Q: What sequence folds into this?
């Protein structure tokens, strides 16, 4: 803790943090990634050499201190090289999801007034090039591929950038150093765009001090919770680095302590990659944790013997979890479960762990110590299922505007359904309507060139409005109820948190996605997307005919998944019966005014391609309701 306090006092910029690690851990592995069909490892010294050349290359193009540079690439080692090249050259990293539309890309480049765009591959570069006339500030597109060459003077490849950098460094070996050493903590480091209140994008402006402060406060928080990250950690990076959470925790925090970052080759090879990288640290969104749990459970329960074994193990695990849970509801996930058990239960637990639970652990590389869920609400039932399996899943919450997590679970005191107290250096309180207000280290002070959104986002005395409704328990642990804008007010005046209802469908074998509706209506309704893959399997097993020509598939989260079915599937009596049973199950746990009175079974999934999901797999409720306006209207006829 003293070292982290010293770090926060003395290290104020991203480049200083980076070179601090290079000086201390230069020969240790920094990155592990697939190249030319095989995994390769870069040391921190290798990493720094690439960054230095790329940073000098940017300076040779004319990049000046404080100028924004857009970075539009998939999560990868080159993303990291590009980010720190921008930072050491004094630029501002403006992250863009590689899947964003041309319209959104144009807005970000124009609004940030970026002069350069670093594209992850040729296809991204071509998309940007096709609309470059609509981005007047943009001078050059840089493609982050070693072998890329272009005859278009507006586009260069990675090798050309590095060659330019080498020439500059030959003339002036201190060219990059002179720039980054002139930076202060108050200089801007990054701009991350998110949706504004009007639907238009708004840019969270984060200084170097914000970025350094946010990763330090998280490391301090983890140490308080019983885990000190170190150079021995290995992070598995899969989520978009364009998102602050992955960038801060799986990337920057790891670099700060000299740990290694292992990059997934692509979402479709997640399980193969995680076996190769064997991480100690991984961040995934709740939807991925849900898919992993359902796939694991499904593998066991596909036959009668496996189902009996799994059910027995979960029963034992549930009893063990109850014994491990303290009077305040917290579980110490760092302590061996056996110490809380009598001899008979300890023996049964060890058998269940060996025969069932360890297989999940081994499937995810066999070394995980810090698996986190974030980016959306982690349903308590799903969290509980993982803890029952002796899997130390932790829960986190934060926003782009808070530079990632400001409440994330303690390994030595985890509460199901709750987060944690605030991280060191951040204060929180509830407004009169329950909205969480925060201030402190890493919290933005304004939106980039957007005084209107800035005025809306802060109270008169400087507290940031998170937009989330929450509550605190007697130990100052925070629980998120829902997004303020999603709270449904029925025409009776009753308030309903849709996230609470939607979370109760997590783990369902038959329902994959749910959007709860009912604002200003007499009752709660739902748009339901079945778990098509499993239901198709059941229908075929029972000999029912399915129109294969009506089925559409897509790769989602690394799995080939059915995203659309024909009407004979959603109207099939067996499917309707199974969905009805699931709705009744959920309703049995709700107050009468919260119960789903009517619902529609939809023939297709909500996807990012249709604009209904964010790159971090959150459902855009407003877009879904707009796209299915006809079905919603019919619900309330």
A:
């Amino acid at each position: 803790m003293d070292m982290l306090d010293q770090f926060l006092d003395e290290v104020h910029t991203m480049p200083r943090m980076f070179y601090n690690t290079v000086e201390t851990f230069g020969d240790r592995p920094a990155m592990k990634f697939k190249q030319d069909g095989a995994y390769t490892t870069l040391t921190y010294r290798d990493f720094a050499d690439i960054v230095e050349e790329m940073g000098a290359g940017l300076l040779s193009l004319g990049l000046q201190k404080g100028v924004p540079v857009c970075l539009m690439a998939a999560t990868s080692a080159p993303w990291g090289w590009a980010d720190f090249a921008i930072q050491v050259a004094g630029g501002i990293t403006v992250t863009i999801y590689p899947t964003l539309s041309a319209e959104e890309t144009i807005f970000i480049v124009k609004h940030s007034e970026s002069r350069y765009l670093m594209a992850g591959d040729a296809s991204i570069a071509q998309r940007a090039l096709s609309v470059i006339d609509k981005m007047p500030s943009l001078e050059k597109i840089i493609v982050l591929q070693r072998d890329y060459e272009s005859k278009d003077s507006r586009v260069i490849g990675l090798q050309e950038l590095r060659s330019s950098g080498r020439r500059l460094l030959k003339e002036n070996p201190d060219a990059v150093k002179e720039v980054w050493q002139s930076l202060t903590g108050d200089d801007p480091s990054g701009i991350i765009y998110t949706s504004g209140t009007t639907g238009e994008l708004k840019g969270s402006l984060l200084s170097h001090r914000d970025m350094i402060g946010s990763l330090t406060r998280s490391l301090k928080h983890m140490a308080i919770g019983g885990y000190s990250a170190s150079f021995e950690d290995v992070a598995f990076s899969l989520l978009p680095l364009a998102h602050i959470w992955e960038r801060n925790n799986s990337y920057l925090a790891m670099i700060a302590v000299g740990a290694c970052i292992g990059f997934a080759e692509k979402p479709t090879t997640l399980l193969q990659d995680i076996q190769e990288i064997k991480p100690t640290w991984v961040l995934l969104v709740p939807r991925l944790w849900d898919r992993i749990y359902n796939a694991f459970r499904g593998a066991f329960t596909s036959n009668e013997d496996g189902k009996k074994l799994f059910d027995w193990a979960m029963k034992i695990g549930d009893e063990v979890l109850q014994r491990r849970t303290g009077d305040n509801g917290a579980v110490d996930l760092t302590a061996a479960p056996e110490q809380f058990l009598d001899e008979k239960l300890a023996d049964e637990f060890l058998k269940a762990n060996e025969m069932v639970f360890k297989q999940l652990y081994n499937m995810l590389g066999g070394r995980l110590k810090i698996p986190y869920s974030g980016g959306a609400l982690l349903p308590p039932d799903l969290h509980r299922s993982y803890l029952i399996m002796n899997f130390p899943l932790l829960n986190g919450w934060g926003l782009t505007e808070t530079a990632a997590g400001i409440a994330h679970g303690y390994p030595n005191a985890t509460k199901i359904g709750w987060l944690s107290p605030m991280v060191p250096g951040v204060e929180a309180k509830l407004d009169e309507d329950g909205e969480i207000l925060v201030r402190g280290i890493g919290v933005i002070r304004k939106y980039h060139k957007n005084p209107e959104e800035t005025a809306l986002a802060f109270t008169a005395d400087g507290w940031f409005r998170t937009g989330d409704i929450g509550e605190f328990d007697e130990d100052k642990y925070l629980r998120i109820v829902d997004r303020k804008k999603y709270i449904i007010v029925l025409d009776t005046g009753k308030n309903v948190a849709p996230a609470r209802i939607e979370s109760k469908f997590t783990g369902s074998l038959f329902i994959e996605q749910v959007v709860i509706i009912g604002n200003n209506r007499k009752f709660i309704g739902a748009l339901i997307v079945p778990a098509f893959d499993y239901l198709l399997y059941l229908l075929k097993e029972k000999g029912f005919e399915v129109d294969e020509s009506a089925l559409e598939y897509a790769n989602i989260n690394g799995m080939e998944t059915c995203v659309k079915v024909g009407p004979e599937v959603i109207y099939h009596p067996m499917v309707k019966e199974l969905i009805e049973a699931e709705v009744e199950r959920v309703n049995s746990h709700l107050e009468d005014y919260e119960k789903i009175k009517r619902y529609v079974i939809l023939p297709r999934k909500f996807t990012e391609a249709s604009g209904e999901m964010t790159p971090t797999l959150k459902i855009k409720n407003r877009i879904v309701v707009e796209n299915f306006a006809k079905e919603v209207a019919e619900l309330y006829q």
The mean pLDDT is 94. The longest helix spans residues 304-324. The chain is about 40% helix and 20% strand.
